[in-house]
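Same chain as my last thread, 134 residues:
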Amino acid sequence: MKKGTKLVAIGIIVVVAVFYLISSGFKQSGVYYLEVHELIKDPTKYEAKGIRVSGDVVKGTIVKDAKNQHLEFVMADGTGKQMNVVYNGIIPDAFTEDVQVIVEGKYHKDTNTFNASTLLAKCPSKYEAEVEKQ
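reply #2:
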């Protein structure tokens, strides 16, 4: 084999290997982004995959133990579908009633409970810039 042919063969192998590593990394770290009603409708579709769910905290449902970093609340979306959420970890400062949240973790359909490993809370509208009326 000529030296140029060897270099082309090695180049192709390197490109294929890099492409394989990138694509397998995306498959392993890929997360579905859903709303509550989408998850409840067909939970078996997402059992073995990472799930990220968005919705609103239902007023009057927050049970918080800040000392032990334990949080439970009910989350709902615009359709009215609800699920219980259990989270252990640092509770964001922006987390309050009626705030939009995104949780990431696993859903248990038998108890309608989402065990969240990550909790993100959208900042309240009081931090958004006011638009001047003309």
